[in-house]
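FW: tagging you since you asked about this chain on Friday. Here's the raw sequence from the shared folder, copied in full. Didn't touch anything.
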Amino acid sequence: MIIRSLIDRLTRPIEGPSKVFAIVFLVIFVVIMAVLFYLNSPVREISAAAARGEAGSQYIMGHKYLYGCRISMVRQDYVRAIYWFHRAAEQGNSGAEFMLGEIYRDGQGVEQSYEQAAYWFRRAAVQGDLDAKFSLGVRYHRGQGVEQNYEQAAYWYRRAAYRGHLGAKVNLATQYYFGRGIEQNYEQAVYWYRRAAYQGHLGAKVNLANQYLYGQGVEQNYEQAVYWYRQAALQRNASAEFGLGARYRLGQGVEQSYEQAVYWYRRAAYQGQVQAKANLAHRYLFGQGIEQNYEQAVYWLHRAVYQGHLGAKVSLAIQYLYGQGVEQNYEQAVYLTRQAALQRSASAEFNLGLNYLQGQGVIQDYIQAAYWFRRAAAQGHEGAQENLDWMYEIGLID
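HL: got it, structure written out here
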């Protein structure tokens, strides 16, 4: 209809720019239609082959419908995708079996079913599909659709890892590290983390750095730990940024530099790494690598406390107690100290005992003071034991 309308317009006695525009538009339209016809020729051929029962073509059609294809003018349609994948899977196409596993795992166009996902992953895995082996291992690892079984998880991870699957290498290394479904073996953990790290896996780089840092499965080597932390940190991994900051603070594997420690702590803190927030706060508190600033220290302590950091609660309570970087507030100091003490921080228990002993933020209460000193002393806090002995000596408690 569009072409006929343009032809009718062209046959009219139109002169000047209007006729030129119509001719140009018609030429462009014809070219676009020709290109689309050319691009769709393979789709029509694949569709015809799929209808004839060719499993490979059925798999391709399923893939096109699953994700949609603008160039081929195929709209996303989960129902048709599942139809074609099922037809291909019935003929033993491992790719289609794997895709059905993913569809059931994610509930795309069907009710989510880990049981069906595990079923199709297994069918593809026994045919050698690499991703299916890994995915089946994950199902056993998490107990999704099958009974949780770390031995089976390790079995499938290993089969995929030996064939080069990156995720399987990392997961197998973790199985070895924690001894899940397999005898704990730090050397094997290092072996697989290293292989994954050389393939660029971010988490593997961090884990390998940790192995070098603590000498687990490999000779302790701070320089190698720094190397791998840096590799991951340059990819903006928060844990690696924190680890690198800690190495600079302690001078492990690098020349000690509080300035560099602050730099890496800050990068990690802005990504939400809670320990980095607490450590950055302490750099501000003590003026290490940065100008001393109690307000900034309080700011970062608050952010760490919000994430539940125990040490940050103790430090922030002290800031409120002495009014450093924040208005002095004994009640807030006691509140934070109590929160930390209830989490069995010996320092917090000791400090809370002092609050009760001196009546700071609470009504003076020697019995409560002794109670918290005892709790801290039981954890080996020497100051708490000394205060407890003193209270007995002068008769404040009996």
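FW: The two ends are 104 Å apart (CA to CA).
HL: agreed, and The CA atoms of residues 11 and 41 lie 32 Å apart.
FW: great, closing this out.
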